[in-house]
């Protein structure tokens, strides 16, 4: 427990307890001065490299031997940001730059009394990693395998940081997977959500497309197709699109399927413009359904919406191209075994 104040630091007279408003405080009758016990400010720093968190192993009590964020008390005349960077350098040997505020938290210490932890995110600018005089060790830890931290306020700060970064990291992961694998993304959380959106609502999207295509002036021949048959066709297209989103597509399969589709529609009396317009209407109804699900409420939702639009463009551009080639060059006459598919 922090020691109680007994004597006035100015005149050495014994202090008494006196009410100031609704609070009881130490008071010097000789100096007519109240003394205040305020929380001590503690600056903490989060430094992350390759999604690993920099931690310090405490050399002294309190919590000797446990890991914590680089942390320490702010000095008089020192800004809280300067205190954070000073503690970072003293405890780890590196020089940092504050890049963001993370959180503030009130805490109580048996040793120091009430504290206010202010945590910042900092970037490693220069210097080599080296444990300071009050640290036994310093190391980076995988975010998924962190040790129990010495202070609850550090734990809260790390959890807040992870929550704030989750969507950003998902977007980065999705983008990196897209760069590495082209459109064959089969491990992306975003892809899973997009696939789920289409899979769970395929019949709704198909019904809206069917109602539109049967009355749209750009697709007059579709009004003559039996609705159940047209429904089967659009569900097949949506199934192909889901496979594309999930990364399970085969380019040869897509080429064969849509060239055959183009040849079939020509044999049935459809104009090429109708086929292309029908694809455009599929995109329209997927997109409108996605928007109706309020996909603009967070950063990750906005990114997912843009990712959906991008992948729709790529998929239906391919489908339109192969269908047009099948329409122009034919397919069934060279592949009689494909009749009726």
Care to give the gist of this entry?
The chain has eight helices and eleven strands. By secondary structure, the protein is α+β, with helices and mostly antiparallel strands. The strands form three sheets. The protein has a four-stranded mixed sheet with strand order 8-4-10-9, with helices on both faces. Strands 5, 6, 7 and 11 form a four-stranded antiparallel sheet that branches.
Please tell me the total number of domains.
3
CATH class of the largest domain: Mainly Alpha
Separation of termini? 82 Å
Succession of helices and strands: EEEEEEEEHEEEHHHHHHH
Q: Helix fraction?
A: 40-55%
CATH architecture of the largest domain: Orthogonal Bundle
Query: What name is given to the CATH topology of the largest domain?
Result: Globin-like
Topology:
Blueprint: E1 16-20, E2 23-28, E3 33-35, E4 40-46, E5 48-49, E6 52-58, E7 67-68, E8 71-73, H1 80-92, E9 95-109, E10 113-126, E11 135-142, H2 152-181, H3 189-200, H4 202-213, H5 227-246, H6 251-267, H7 272-292, H8 299-329
Parallel strand pairs: 4-10
Antiparallel strand pairs: 1-2, 2-3, 4-8, 5-6, 6-7, 6-11, 9-10
Helix pairs in contact: 3-5, 4-5, 4-7, 6-8, 7-8
């Amino acid at each position: 427990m922090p020691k109680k104040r007994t004597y006035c630091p100015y005149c050495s007279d014994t202090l008494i307890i006196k009410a100031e408003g609704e609070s009881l405080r130490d008071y010097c009758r000789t100096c007519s001065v109240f003394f205040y016990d305020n929380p001590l400010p503690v600056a903490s720093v989060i430094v992350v490299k390759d999604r690993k968190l920099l931690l310090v192993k405490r050399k002294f009590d309190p919590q000797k031997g446990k890991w914590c964020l680089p942390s320490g008390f702010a000095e008089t005349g020192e800004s809280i940001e300067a205190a954070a960077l000073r503690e970072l350098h003293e405890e780890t040997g590196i020089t940092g730059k504050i890049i963001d505020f993370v959180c503030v938290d009130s805490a109580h210490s048996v040793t120091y009394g009430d504290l206010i932890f202010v945590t910042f995110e900092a970037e490693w600018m220069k210097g080599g990693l080296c444990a300071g005089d009050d640290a036994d060790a310093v190391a980076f830890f995988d975010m998924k395998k962190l040790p129990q931290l010495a202070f609850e306020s550090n734990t809260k700060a790390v959890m807040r940081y992870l929550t704030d970064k989750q969507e950003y990291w998902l977007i980065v992961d999705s983008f990196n997977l897209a760069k590495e694998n082209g459109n064959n993304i089969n491990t992306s959380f975003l892809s899973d959500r997009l696939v789920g959106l289409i899979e769970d609502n395929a019949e709704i999207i198909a019904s809206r497309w069917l109602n539109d295509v049967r009355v749209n002036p750009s697709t007059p021949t579709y009004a003559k197709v039996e609705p159940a048959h047209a429904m089967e066709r659009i569900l097949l297209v949506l199934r192909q699109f889901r496979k594309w989103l999930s990364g399970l597509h085969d380019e040869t399969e897509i080429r064969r399927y849509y060239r055959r589709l183009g040849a079939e529609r020509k044999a049935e009396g459809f104009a090429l413009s109708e086929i292309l317009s029908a694809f455009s209407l599929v995109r329209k109804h997927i997109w409108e359904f996605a928007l109706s699900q309020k996909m603009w409420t967070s950063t990750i939702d906005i990114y997912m919406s843009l990712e959906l639009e991008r992948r729709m463009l790529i998929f239906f551009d391919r489908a339109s191209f192969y269908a047009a080639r099948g329409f122009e060059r034919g397919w069934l006459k060279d592949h009689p075994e494909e009749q009726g598919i």
